[in-house]
């Protein structure tokens, strides 16, 4: 399709502007076809950016190696450029939108020289769903085009829905590496130096400008940029929720079904939880989504969730047949791997894949030949696969994908989970006493920072409210208010009892020897079963100062967990909680100043009183 054939005048104008600014050699409007996907892969293979994997082992799959400086999201270079700094709030980087655009225009100038400018129309959510949103990404990266084919619904059919004047979020992306005449990438992942990378959001004008990175959430702009940062602003304005949450379907032995959504920071096991195989007999878990949930009230007063994505962009290391059999099945074919190891027999490999690497040698994520590890472990810092190595795979390939996963109406949510990596203090599971207490718990989520972000804080516990710290497109204090307002709306309409119940979970408790005391993975089904029952007002429980915990014996002990360990997992550590809450009062809540809702101040005081006994 040619630019002239486009029906949408605004889209046409925007493409022309981008072309004038970035001066690509040519422009292509993506149709979303399988042939187009294959062509993108061929271009990257010809440029030596991708390696085709062994067709008999990993059909239809390729491996990319990124630049060592371009391996994860860059929070320091991510901006929320609202007109007023206060609207970005204390947790976001801010710059004046005009100033930022000026800076970025200078970078974009001529940045696509020697490259093709691809225009990708995409829909987050089933095309035509009343919860879905349309975006158009302009990019000079065929890697991005191929990934977007998997992660979103792309192509001509989106333009049909957009029509002549439909709303779309313009998403501008350039890797920031123009090519001289005759030059090709020739095996070198194109990107710009760190100081020139910008992942920018303009919430008032609903625009995204990304420059200098080709990796994951920095470049696949439908994901974190649109479906979370911009969508959170749309959701605030339109009265719905855009959340960093997995969605799972759970069926009990009696055949009753519930849907649960859960917010956990990046690389805390959302994909594993969404695909878990229960160890509890008779229970079944199926996947609706593994990263993002968009939710709206239905006519019946329940919150209905859709997964706006069409694929999984999952962390590879640690994924194996034990930890996530369904993910291993999903990535058997038609998968894009990034920054994994390459074995002698043309397959991928990573740390904790469940087996040593075959053959004598292996190529690591930096492209260096190394002795093939005999076990699936490597010393820290010497990994064969980058700790944030990823797979991009179509959701429809997942053996446990729920049949409702593409239902445009969404699925009704019964429970919200909040959690993070917390070695101490936070018990295995804890139900909130009320909606507002649940919002309080969500607002104080803390987690050890993982390799999903380039940061010097990796390994340290930081507060990550609602697991949205890097993804909230406006003032986080106002975001808390929005959650409170959702509860109030439900109350006013007589739907309060239909709101999802809220739970805090922690699979990551450690003992004095720094060993995990809860086995996690499939055993988490024991916790999910208790949550399932609690949604029906069943499940033996105990009122405590921090919330409602399982009564002793309410969660059956898995093999390998001693009685003492179980008691520790469910102990209310009053001293630990006092410290936790003191940190919230002294260091966390003051950040939000006048934007902190009074309701949360009251919750803070109430829990302080309860802890004093
Ligand atoms: O933002 S990414 O999509 O690169 C991955 C993540 O942080 O969850
Ligand atoms: Mn995520």
Structure, explained:
The termini are far apart. Helix 2 packs antiparallel against helix 5, helix 11 crosses helix 16 and helix 15 packs antiparallel against helix 16. It contains 16 helices and 30 strands. The strands form six sheets. Strands 11, 12, 13, 14, 15, 16, 24, 25 and 28 form a nine-stranded mixed β-sheet that branches. The protein folds into three domains: 215 residues, Phosphoenolpyruvate Carboxykinase, domain 1, CATH 3.40.449; 279 residues, Phosphoenolpyruvate Carboxykinase, domain 3 (Alpha-Beta Complex); 86 residues, Beta Complex (Phosphoenolpyruvate Carboxykinase, domain 2), CATH 2.170.8. It binds sulfoacetic acid and manganese (II) ion. The site of sulfoacetic acid has 8 residues, from helix 7 and helix 8. The site of manganese (II) ion has 3 residues, from loops.
Kindly summarize this structure in a few lines:
This protein is an alpha+beta fold. The chain folds into three domains: 3-50 and 73-239, Phosphoenolpyruvate Carboxykinase, domain 1; 243-310 and 402-612, Alpha-Beta Complex (Phosphoenolpyruvate Carboxykinase, domain 3); 312-397, Phosphoenolpyruvate Carboxykinase, domain 2 (Beta Complex), CATH 2.170.8.10. Strands 11, 12, 13, 14, 15, 16, 24, 25 and 28 form a nine-stranded mixed β-sheet that branches. Strands 1, 4, 5, 6, 7, 8, 9 and 10 form an eight-stranded mixed β-sheet that branches.
């Amino acid at each position: 399709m040619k630019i002239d054939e486009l029906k949408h005048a605004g889209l046409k104008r925007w493409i022309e502007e981008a072309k004038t600014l970035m001066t690509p050699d040519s422009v292509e409007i993506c149709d979303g076809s399988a042939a187009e996907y294959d062509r993108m892969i061929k271009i990257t293979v010809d440029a030596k950016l991708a390696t085709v994997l062994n067709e008999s082992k990993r059909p239809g799959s390729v491996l990319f190696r990124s630049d060592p400086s371009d391996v994860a999201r860059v929070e320091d270079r991510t901006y929320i450029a609202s007109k007023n700094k206060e609207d970005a709030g204390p947790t976001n980087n801010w710059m004046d939108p005009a100033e930022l655009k000026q800076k970025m225009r200078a970078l974009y100038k001529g940045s696509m020289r020697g490259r093709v400018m691809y225009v990708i129309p995409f829909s987050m959510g089933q095309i035509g769903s009343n919860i879905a949103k349309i975006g158009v990404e302009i990019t000079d990266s065929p890697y991005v085009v191929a990934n977007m084919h998997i992660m979103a619904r792309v192509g001509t059919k989106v333009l049909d829905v957009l029509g002549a004047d439909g709303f779309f979020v313009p998403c501008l992306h350039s890797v920031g590496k123009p090519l001289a005449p005759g030059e090709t990438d020739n095996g070198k992942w194109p990107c710009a130096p760190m100081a020139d990378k910008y992942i920018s959001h303009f919430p008032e004008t609903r625009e995204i400008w990304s420059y200098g990175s080709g990796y994951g959430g920095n470049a696949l702009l439908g994901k974190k940029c649109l479906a979370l940062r911009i969508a959170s602003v749309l959701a605030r304005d339109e009265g719905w929720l855009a959340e960093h949450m997995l969605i799972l379907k759970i069926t009990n032995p009696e055949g009753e079904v519930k849907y649960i959504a859960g917010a956990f920071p990046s690389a805390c096991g959302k994909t594993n939880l969404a695909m878990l195989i229960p160890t509890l007999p008779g229970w079944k878990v199926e996947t609706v989504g593994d990263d993002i949930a968009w939710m709206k009230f239905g006519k019946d007063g329940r919150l209905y969730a859709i997964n706006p994505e069409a694929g999984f962009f999952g962390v590879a290391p640690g994924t194996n047949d034990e930890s996530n059999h369904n993910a291993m099945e999903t990535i058997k074919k038609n998968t894009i791997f990034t920054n994994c190891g390459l074995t002698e027999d043309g397959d991928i490999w990573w740390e904790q894949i469940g087996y040593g690497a075959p053959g004598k040698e292996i190529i690591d994520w930096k492209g260096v030949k190394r002795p093939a590890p005999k076990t699936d472990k490597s010393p820290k810092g010497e990994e064969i696969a980058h700790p944030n190595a990823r797979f991009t795979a179509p959701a429809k390939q997942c053996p446990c994908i729920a049949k409702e996963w593409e239902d445009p109406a969404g699925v009704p949510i019964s429970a919200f989970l909040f959690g993070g990596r917390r070695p101490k203090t936070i018990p295995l599971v804890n139900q909130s006493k009320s909606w507002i207490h649940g919002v309080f718990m969500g607002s104080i989520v803390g987690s050890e920072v993982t390799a999903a972000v380039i940061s010097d804080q990796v390994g340290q516990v930081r507060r990550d409210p609602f697991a949205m710290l890097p993804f909230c497109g406006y003032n986080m204090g106002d975001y808390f208010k929005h959650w409170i307002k959702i509860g109030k709306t439900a109350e006013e309409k007589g739907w309060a009892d239909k709101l999802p119940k809220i739970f805090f979970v922690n699979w990551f408790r450690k003992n004095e020897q720094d060993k995990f005391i809860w086995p996690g993975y499939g055993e988490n089904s024991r916790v999910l079963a208790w949550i399932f029952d609690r949604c029906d007002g069943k499940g033996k429980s105990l009122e405590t100062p921090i919330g409602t915990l399982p009564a002793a014996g309410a969660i059956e002990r898995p093999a390998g967990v001693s009685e003492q360990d179980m008691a520790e997992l469910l102990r209310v550590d009053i001293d630990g909680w006092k410290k936790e809450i003191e940190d919230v009062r002294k260091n966390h809540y003051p950040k939000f100043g006048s934007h902190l809702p009074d309701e949360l101040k009251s919750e803070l005081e109430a829990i302080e009183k309860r802890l004093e006994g």
